Amino acid sequence: MKYFLFISSFVLLISCNNNNNTSSIKVVGQMQDVMWNGELAGKISTDSINHPTSYGLGPIEYLKGEVLLFEGRTFVSKVVDSSTHEVTQMKSTKAPFFVYASKSELMELVMPDHRLSLKSTEQFIDSLFIAYDDPLLVRIDGVFEDLSIHSVNLPEGSLVSSPREAHEGLINYKYENVSGSIIGFFSRNHKAVFTHHDSYFHAHFISDDRTIMGHVDSVVFDSKKATLKVSK
């Protein structure tokens, strides 16, 4: 039955993709301008897109942490020390590049019945939306067995002209069996704009208790303990 639902979902999605290759997802600024040209000042304020069905992500201006717009609410993550970071809900913050979707209509997909990683999730979405070239919003809710995230933490007054310099002060954090949500944006055509050069997917995680949030570096989860939704 699950196999039938998976095939049915695939056929429905491909049909929709062929008929309507449009996306409501918007991008402000570019990752490459931050990493290579040192454009660190904010180019968007999140209070301008705080609709209850809005989602978005990027770094805090001057690379002082991570930003997640989740259900229209702004959350920021900042480094405290090598083992601790602080997550705060704010009215607004600014980002030097930001990808977002307003008034999103999320549709649940039937996932393959096994454990997934960040890469295999990216490949699964890529296979379903093979005929669709615009960005996609992805939301995964569930329990994540192994999770690695980071927050940028650029020292005050630093100048940036390379990814290595942009990542100075970055801290990684690892967790096991944590419940929460991954919000990500998938695109084959936005490398160095809002995804890294080796990926089609840029994602942030936030825990259900709102104490953990950051850029997702790696993840492993059981598809039976999670739901995956996608919106154009």
Structure description:
By secondary structure, this protein is α+β, with helices and mostly antiparallel strands. It is built from four helices and 15 strands. It has one domain (2-231): 60s Ribosomal Protein L30, Chain: A, CATH 3.30.1330.80. Strands 9, 10, 11, 12, 13, 14 and 15 form a seven-stranded antiparallel sheet that branches. Strands 1-8-3-4-5-6 form a six-stranded antiparallel sheet, with no helix packed on it. The protein is globular, with a radius of gyration of 17 Å.
Order of helices and strands: HEHEEEEEEEEEHEHEEEE
- CATH architecture grouping: 2-Layer Sandwich
CATH H-level name... which superfamily? Hypothetical protein, similar to alpha- acetolactate decarboxylase, domain 2
Question: What is the overall silhouette?
Answer: globular
Regions with little confidence, pLDDT below 50 for 5+ residues: 1-21
Level of helix content? 10-25%
Largest sheet: 7 strands, antiparallel
Number of helices: 4
Count of extended strands: 15
Average pLDDT score: 91
Strand fraction band?
Answer: 35-45%
**Which fold name is given in CATH as the topology?**
60s Ribosomal Protein L30, Chain: A
Structural class: alpha+beta
Our count of domains comes out at 1
CATH class descriptor name:
Alpha Beta
Query: Taking Cα atoms only, what radius of gyration do you get, to the nearest Å?
Result: 17 Å
Distance between the termini: 27 Å
Short structural summary:
By secondary structure, the chain is of the alpha+beta class. It has four helices and 15 strands.
Give the arrangement of secondary structure elements.
Blueprint: H1 2-19, E1 26-28, H2 31-37, E2 44-45, E3 55-59, E4 66-70, E5 73-81, E6 84-90, E7 94-95, E8 98-101, E9 107-109, E10 115-117, H3 118-128, E11 136-151, H4 163-166, E12 171-186, E13 201-207, E14 213-222, E15 226-231
Antiparallel strand pairs: 1-8, 2-7, 3-4, 3-8, 4-5, 5-6, 9-15, 10-14, 11-12, 11-14, 11-15, 12-13, 13-14
